Amino acid sequence: MECLRYQCLVWSVFLFLWVAGKAQQTLSNSTYILHQILLKNYNADIRPCLDCKTPLFVGIKFHLTALNKIDEIEGELSTVGYLKVVWSDERLTWDPTSNGVGNVMMPSTKIWTPIVLLGNPSKEIIHLNQDDAIARVLYNGTVIWHPGDVFRSRCEYDVHSYPFDKQSCSIVFTPWSYLASEITFLAASDHADTAFYQENGEWKLGLTSSSTYTKKQSSFVRFHFNFIRRSEFFVVNIIVPISFLSFLNCLAFAIPIQSGERVSYTITVLLSFAVFMTLVSDNIPKTSAPMSLLCYYLTSLFSGSVLIMTCVTINMSTFYTDPSIDVPPRYVRLHKMVTRGKRRKKLDERKRHVNCVSNDTRQSVQNSNEADGTTQNVTVTWHEVAAALDKIGLIVSLTYFSCITIGMILYTTRSKL
After folding, report:
1. Could you say which of 81, 87, 178, 373 has the lowest number of CB atoms within 10 Å?
2. Residue 217: per-residue pLDDT
3. What pLDDT was estimated at residue 415?
4. HEC per residue, the chain
């Protein structure tokens, strides 16, 4: 009994596989016959139209899969993606109930397909890699086609806020050689599809949009993309080192003049600024409309470094002036202004000391203090003048670089918002 059941099960499996194979063979035969019928007397050079007085509407949807590169220097946007192109061909219709086939795949070289051209190429005019894409034809004549390629489109960049900039670029498609009265492109969606998009390490993808327009009797569909630069790399590797370098430049006034290392120190810092300016200039467009704010920032720091080197050289000349030459009164007043706090502190210490002595002694000390502060001539040497100039240079340079850096930070923060 069990053996009989086993034999029945085996024969049932064989019968099912035989029926499935026959059905598959019948379906394959039906698809082959359908291909022969549809392509018989079919002319792929003529656009599908029963009433050619009306335009053929072609739906376009762009699928962005990757961002290769945004080249600000060349003004080029390189992306990878594919299009979903949909139109209706009345010559490719059939009754699915007669053969059980609802759709067939056909090579794009055997049926009519629109020649989709990149409307804003960066270097050369090319059409999509459409010969390798296979089209799906539905029983009602709807043709769905997915050509893909690497798109190198033209884009105008605004690098004023570099490296905290946002860029807006577009990819435009148009039917080659056809007028808008013959073929009209329609955006199948109000935005580009990014379901398969892979994030870029340098740029973050923002909002996308799509639109259609007609220009000079030609139909165009535009896909607009917003990209936001990821500025962390530039902040860590350019802006932060430059900021630290600018404050190190101020320490030139703290180096003793007798060491003889001041000039070499300032020249080293100056050359470092020049290197950073070269690095930045190699990564931004050579344009003046507008120029990057970072270029102005580097130029300001470079100018401050040149000014510090000049002041250091002049101050060294002051330090080594012949002691036999009298110090001009303006330098004496400058020295008094800088050292006023020290002299006032010295007078306060003398007054506290007066409280510990007798009245007669106190009166004599006060008279001496008054003489020191008002009537006695103060002798100022060239070394003291140089020290006062160093103090002024340190304060002014720190204030200068701090104001420029804080202003840069506030401006870029406001632009990002």
Report:
1. 373
2. 87
3. 62
4. CHHHHHHHHHHHHHHHHHHHHHHHHHHHHHHHHHHHHHHCCCCCCCCCCCCCCCCEEEEEEEEEEEEEEEECCCCEEEEEEEEEEEEEEEEEECCHHHHCCCEEEEECCCCCCCCEEECCECCCCCECCCCCCEEEEECEEEEEECCEEEEEEECCCCCCCCCCCEEEEEEEEEECCCCCCCEEEEECCCCCECCCCECCCCEEEEEEEEEEEEECCEEEEEEEEEEEECCHHHHHHHHHHHHHHHHHHHHHHHCCHHHCCHHHHHHHHHHHHHHHHHHHHCCCCCCCCCCCHHHHHHHHHHHHHHHHHHHHHHHHHHHCCCCCCCCCHHHHHHHHHHCHHHHHHHHHHHHHHHCCCCHHHHHHHHHHHHHHHHHCCCCCCHHHHHHHHHHHHHHHHHHHHHHHHHHHHHHHHHHHC
Looking at residue 172, what is its pLDDT?
A: 94
* pTM score: 0.73
Cα separation, 110 vs 116, in Å, equals 17
pLDDT of residue 247: 87
pLDDT less than 70: residues of the chain: 1-28, 129-131, 285, 287-289, 341-378, 415-417
Give the number of other CB atoms < 10 A from CB of residue 399: 11
| Integer angstrom CA distances of residue 28 from 54, 68, 74, 104 | 37, 41, 52, 11
User: What is residue 1's predicted lDDT score, i.e. its pLDDT?
Assistant: 52
What domains can you pick out in the chain, each with its CATH number?
60-83+115-133+141-230 (2.70.170.10), 233-327+381-416 (1.20.58.390)
In terms of C-beta density within 10 A (0-12 exposed, 13-18 middle, 19 or more buried), how is residue 89 classed? buried
